[in-house]
Inverse folding.
């Protein structure tokens, strides 16, 4: 995994969260100016491909900027198409979190219960 993936004006920043099983947080995904041209999709796809190859679990919070042209629901639907699933939790603070388990070697990663959501 890389800490940053870039394509044209889009970037995805990631931070390694826990070592075993390996979980990375998608800390920020953004495109500067040129929305709707598939740039963010290209970088997200690349990050997901690397996560699958390396058996890495990805975690993100659906939190659109005030300038974001997409609603929280549109973002959640988009992330879901890349395999992210809402974290099932009673805790309201966790409601916006989505987890993506690597499609390869997914068995070595337990489901969300092991992931402590950062405050
Ligand atoms: C979210 C963001 C990164 C998307 O960047 P982008 O380069 O426009 O994304 P893409 O062109 O790859 O499109 C991604 C998806 O969103 C959809 N989309 C893009 N613009 C949209 C709009 N205005 N309304 C509805 N859907 C839209 C696309 O159709 C695409 O879905 P698809 O893959 O099913 O076709 C961009 O809006 C952004 O930088 N927002 C501000 C930062 C932010 O809030 N980040 C999210 C933090 S959780």
């Amino acid at each position: 995994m890389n800490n940053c993936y870039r394509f044209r004006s889009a970037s995805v920043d990631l931070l390694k969260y826990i070592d075993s099983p390996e979980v990375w947080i998608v800390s920020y995904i953004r495109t500067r100016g040129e929305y709707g041209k598939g740039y963010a999709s290209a970088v997200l796809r690349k990050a997901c491909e690397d996560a699958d190859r390396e058996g890495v679990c990805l975690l993100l919070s659906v939190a659109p900027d005030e300038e974001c042209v997409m609603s929280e629901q549109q973002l959640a639907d988009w992330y879901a198409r890349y395999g992210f699933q809402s974290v099932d939790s009673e805790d309201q603070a966790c409601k916006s979190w989505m987890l993506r388990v690597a499609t390869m070697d997914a068995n070595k990663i337990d489901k969300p219960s092991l992931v402590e959501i950062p405050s």
Notes: The domain at 4-112 is CATH 3.40.630.30 (Aminopeptidase). The first helix runs from residue 39 to 54. Residues 10, 29-31, 35-41, 62-65, 67-70, 74-75, 78, 81 surround coenzyme A (CB under 6 Å). The beta strands are 4-7, 10-18, 23-31, 57-61, 85-86, 97-100.
